[in-house]
Amino acid sequence: TPTPTSNSAKPKPITSIGNRWSDALLPYCKSPEDHKDSVVYYDDQIVIIRDYYPKAKHHYLVMPRRIIPSINDLKITDIELLEYMNEKSISYIHQTLKCDLSMFMLGFHAIPSMKQLHMHIISKDFDSPSLKKKEHWVSFTTDFFIPYPSLYNNLKFNQKIIIDKEKYLALKSDPIKCPKCSNVFKTLPSVKEHYKSC
DNA sequence: GTTCTAGAAC
DNA sequence: GTTCTAGAAC
């Protein structure tokens, strides 16, 4: 049996503290001018980018320029920033996309994966090859998706965001449902195909 | 967040 | 045999 040689070592793993993938949105906020391929709008307060793995035909992320790690870090003093994010999103849909607001959802994931507060602007077709896991479906078609007005009212009423994490985690083990007719499906491809004509 | 892939489900 | 899901990734 040949003995291992010095060049048989495995590739060096990523060992830095924290998960670098979860920081991937930060550069867009820090220097939007350097990412004009993804950035579709920016000003002093916010950035709007195309989602790199769109879960529908139209999918954008709206983020503050200032670092706010997640919805759980929102303060009551951020209420005007939220209003601004909503206003600019609606303007983008109307003026740039020239689409009807009713074909979109604006909102936040109850338990986001990526750092930096981001509001989704997503069309309701959910027709995209990047939507490939049950978790994706759940995150946009159930209460896991918190519409802008709900998050706004949560912050305004409670002076901070209050999230029942257990409730949202439990959604992942519910059966796959069509959000229009509530019929249950066994697989993700089957519900996606059904949804197109429901 | 995604990729990869083993093995379950069909 | 092929489709599909779900968990590890150091």
CA radius of gyration: 19 Å
The ordered string of helix (H) and strand (E) elements is HEEEHEEHEHHEEH
* Share of residues in strands: 15-25%
- Are there runs of 5+ residues with pLDDT below 50, and where? 1-14
**Number of extended strands:** 8
What value does the average pLDDT take? Answer: 93
First-to-last CA distance = 62 Å
- The percentage helix is 25-40%
Helix/strand-derived category reads alpha+beta
Give the biggest sheet: 6 strands, antiparallel
* General form: globular
Taking strands numbered 1, 2, ... along the chain, how are they ordered across the largest sheet? 1-2-3-5-4-6
The number of helices is: 6
Biased composition (Polar residues): 1-9
Domain HIT: 27-131
Protein name: Histidine triad family protein
Subcellular location: Nucleus
